[in-house]
Amino acid sequence: MQKSNAFVDVLKNIRELVGAEFYSDSLEDRLCYSYDATIEEALPDAIVSPGATEDIARIMKWANEAKMPVIPRGAGTGLSGGSVPVKGGLVMILTRLNRILEINEADFYMVVEPGVITNTINEVMAKKGFMYPPDPASMKTSTIGGNVAENAGGLRGLKYGVTKNYVMALEVVTPTGEIIKTGTHTVKTATGYNLTQLFVGSEGTLGVITKITLKFIPAPEHKESMMAIFKDMNQAAQTVADIIKSGVVPATLEFLDHITINAVEDFERIGLPRDADALLLIETDGMKEAAIREIASVEEICKKNDAFKTQKAKTEKEREIVWAARRVAFSALARVRPTTILEDATVPRSRIPDMVRGVNQIARKYNIMIGNFGHAGDGNLHPTILTDERDKEEFARVEKAIEEIFDLALKLDGTLSGEHGIGYSKAKFLENEVGKDGLAVMKRVKDALDPNGILNPGKMSL
Ligand SMILES: Cc1cc2nc3c(=O)[nH]c(=O)nc-3n(C[C@H](O)[C@H](O)[C@H](O)COP(=O)(O)OP(=O)(O)OC[C@H]3O[C@@H](n4cnc5c(N)ncnc54)[C@H](O)[C@@H]3O)c2cc1C
């Protein structure tokens, strides 16, 4: 593909600024950065990997003058096409900015660069007896910058919340090249607009995040984990609703359906019950006595809903095996058919049984395979469509099914995305949720910060 002439000079300047080692416009490299974890793909004109905020600011100024698209990118694990350069331009990889700059144990915050891998933060904090709770299943690969840009959730979201609940302050390079600071290192602030939360979840469309201040908390004293196995998916869905209603707030309450259980078992062979229709993975944590009492209440609720087996993890190794099963669910499902489309439409928690039943009906109606798993405790399931995009007739049925899944979630008072964002894949559905006027306000915010529309264009209908 021919590089746009208007960009040639700018790209030459950028190459000189960062050095040849950190710039490429070879076809091989452009191909490598034309994907994320969805089925979307588009070639960029070039790739840059800057090593300093000031360089990013220079690049943004040049790009803005030349009206050249810039697409921020972390690890490329996104599930909505967010880092795919759908309008060409420059992919800006943020993984060179990968230092933990400060850990302040007196005030319970840390300052990190966006390229730090999420799991590194988890491990560093765990060694010190603290916890950074957001734990996306992709955390061994995803970057904290990508997590902030997507407002990533994780397995502990039910009790501890998601990324936005832990971001205190940011350093951001605007699309026009200014370096701004948002937020504070204080527990409270009521100073000006909450720009920090404007950038959280902005999917790389409003600014390049170059520094992040994250809150952390003391690690819980004790954890109890259990698995509950059900012959009927409806029983499992009802159990989730009953646990929430009971007032117990598990740290984690995850759901795997029959298709997912078998895909995981084919992949890892860890001894999950292949004949189960659904299983719940549940963890309580906190003070030892409280965690034990809570898991006992949860077990009782599972039994009342006719779980045919409940099994508590007796050792840390058993516990890790159970959670490993959940973390590989997506990768295991992805092996079943050539194309995997993972959705994350989310509903109020009491509507989980309706959502599970509705998704199964949609799968039957369109005669397609949908594995279902996810963060049942916070209403965030991941209906995962297993298909083959080369089969045009089947894929047309898949597209109709996806539309119906979104319609169902909205009808149940839910949302299009609980944690993966809108990106490119769901852009055309955004107006269904936020309305014409809501979308117009989002566009005005975008125009105010990015008058030339150069930062991650084509995403979120902006
Ligand atoms: C197997 C698997 C499991 C997953 N599990 C979960 C899960 O449990 N929970 C969850 O929430 N997500 C999950 N995801 C999705 C994905 O990992 C998250 O969205 C993650 O936050 C993306 O991080 P990344 O570094 O890969 O970002 P990328 O995919 O590179 O980028 C994502 C978006 O962020 C923007 N961006 C990246 N860095 C910056 C920056 N520094 N400044 C501004 N914008 C930026 C990009 O432009 C893009 O729009 C999963 C993905 C996979 C493949």
Please provide a written account of the structure:
With 462 residues, the chain is α+β, with helices and mostly antiparallel strands. The protein folds into four domains: 5-93, Uridine Diphospho-n-acetylenolpyruvylglucosamine Reductase, domain 2 (2-Layer Sandwich); 100-218, Uridine Diphospho-n-acetylenolpyruvylglucosamine Reductase, domain 3 (2-Layer Sandwich), CATH 3.30.465.10; 220-329, Alpha-Beta Plaits (2-Layer Sandwich); 337-429, Alpha-Beta Plaits, CATH 3.30.70.2740. The chain is built from 15 helices and 18 strands. It has a seven-stranded antiparallel sheet, with helices on both faces. Strands 5-6-10-8-9 form a five-stranded antiparallel sheet. A four-stranded mixed sheet has the order 1-2-4-3, covered by helices on one side. A hairpin with a 5-residue loop joins strand 8 and strand 9 (179-183). Helix 8 (233-246) crosses helix 10, helix 8 runs antiparallel to helix 13 and helix 13 (352-365) packs antiparallel against helix 14 (392-411). The longest helix has 20 residues, at 392-411. The model has no long low-confidence stretch (mean pLDDT 95). Bound molecules: flavin-adenine dinucleotide. Flavin-adenine dinucleotide binds at residues 36-37, 71-79, 82-83, 94, 114, 136-138, 142-143, 145-147, 149-150, 152-154, 203-204, 208-209, 330-331, 419-420, 423, 456.
